[in-house]
Amino acid sequence: MELLKKWYDDSQKPFFKKKDLEKISNQLNRLYNTQRRNTTQKQLISVRGLSKSTILYEVRTGQVITEEEHKQEWEMQQPKLRYLCYDQITSLVEDGDMALVEAFFPLQIDHLALKRAIDTKLPVLPDYVQNTVPVDEFLQVIGSASGSMEFGLGGSQITMRSAIQHSLMISLKESLEEKTNQNINCYSQDPRDTAIDNRDLGQYGCEVSEDPQALLQIDNDCILFSCCPSLPLKEITVDFGRPAMLIWDRVNMGAYGEWSPRSNPNSHRVLNMIENEYDCHEFWDLHKKEAAPFGSHLTIYIRRQAE
Predict the structure, then answer these.
(1) Contact 208, 197 (CB under 8 A)
(2) How do the residues of the chain divide into helix, strand and coil, expressed in percent and rounded to 5?
(3) In whole angstroms, what is the distance from residue 42 CA to residue 55 CA?
(4) Which of 100, 101, 138, 188 has the most crowded Cβ, counting Cβ within 10 A?
(5) Residue 45: closest CA among 114, 113, 107
(6) Which stretches make up the SRR1-like domain (predicted)?
(7) pTM attached to this predicted model
(8) SS3 assignment, position 298
(9) Distance, CA of 49 to CA of 22 (rounded, Å)
């Protein structure tokens, strides 16, 4: 690993190379274009590492791994690129989750696997879906620090993100009302809210609250939504209640003491609450936060039922 560190510390040596990425992309494109052809020939994807050595990854699409004991199986999906930064590689090697021979390969190939029942071939639902809070316990949706939708106050990108976040809150409210056949209160609080926000959100049943009125509504029967707030909302939530559902920035388990947002840190109290009382569900395809509409690793946490 010392050699890898020297390589990374040398600013003249690129860690990711366009040329290598293009070669892998071309191989994947050829694979996708010929995937409908029936062939028994083994397909391989060649990936070149930093030391110019090569790893050949076998394409395992369609292969099935069976677990008879639990009557489950995993079907391998299309191969995907896996991007690993220096910190990820060193952490994986130190934890024993990556062989040392792979350490010089920031670009790798991986396969997602579809977990399903052997008999029905239907996907097996994770425990968090089967262990959720009953939907009739949701009484209100609370949004904090979603910004202003008034055009021009923070630039078009910020305005767009604010609109998307408020749309999500309203969609949650309307979906719950449809399922429960009862009125669901919806509150939004941000110091930048304007009269235009108040008017537009009010048309959809979302009340713009003055600071700190929305925070005072946090209880065990709410859905709490927030994305990159500039206040310690996680700490406040720990003290105010245990919302039935949290939709906010991902809490990295075991990350206390590492980097976390300064204004909304993942303190040991937050980590304990999430680890001991909530199940986690990440949004699909939103792992690259820079490209995501929320600009965050937005994650759903669902409170476990008391045993």
Answers:
(1) yes
(2) 35, 25, 45
(3) 15
(4) 188
(5) 107
(6) 151-254
(7) 0.56
(8) strand
(9) 14
Q: Mark residue 202 as left, alpha or beta (left: phi above 0; alpha: psi -120 to 50; beta: remaining).
A: alpha
Listed in sequence order, the residues at least 6 apart from 149 whose beta carbon sits closer than 8 Å to its beta carbon are 159, 162, 163, 166, 196, 197, 200
Q: Is residue 97 classed exposed, middle or buried when 0-12, 13-18 and 19+ CB atoms within 10 A define those classes?
A: exposed
- How far apart (Å, rounded) are the C-alpha atoms in residues 102 and 42? 22
Give the C-alpha separation, 187 to 202, whole Å.
10
Q: Where in the chain is the domain with CATH 3.40.50?
A: 140-303
Element (H, E) at 6: helix 2-9
220 vs 306: CA distance, rounded Å:
12
Distance of CA 257 to the CA centre of its chain: 21
Question: With contact defined as beta carbons under 8 Å apart, do 210 and 193 qualify?
Answer: no
Phi, psi angles (nearest 5°) of residue 75: -100, 125
Question: Could you count the other beta carbons within 10 Å of the beta carbon of residue 88?
Answer: 13
pLDDT for 161-199, tens place per residue?
889 899 999 999 999 999 889 999 999 999 888 899 999
First to last CA, the chain: 46
* Distance separating alpha carbons of residues 105 and 98, to the nearest angstrom: 11
The set of residues, in sequence order, having a beta carbon less than 8 Å from that of 32 and lying 6+ positions away, is: 78
Q: What is the per-residue pLDDT across 96-154, written as a single tens digit (0 to 9) for each?
A: 888 988 999 999 999 888 888 898 888 776 554 555 555 557 789 999 988 888 865 55
Q: Long-range contacts for 5-12 (Cβ within 8 Å, ≥24 apart)?
A: 5/90, 7/50, 7/104, 8/86
Q: How many CB atoms lie within 10 A of CB 213?
A: 12
Torsion of CA 242, 247, 253, 257, to 10 degrees: -90
User: What amino acid is encoded at 190 in this protein?
Assistant: D
- In the structure encoding, which two tokens stand for residue 238, read together? 């720990």
Cα 98 from Cα 110, distance rounded (Å): 13
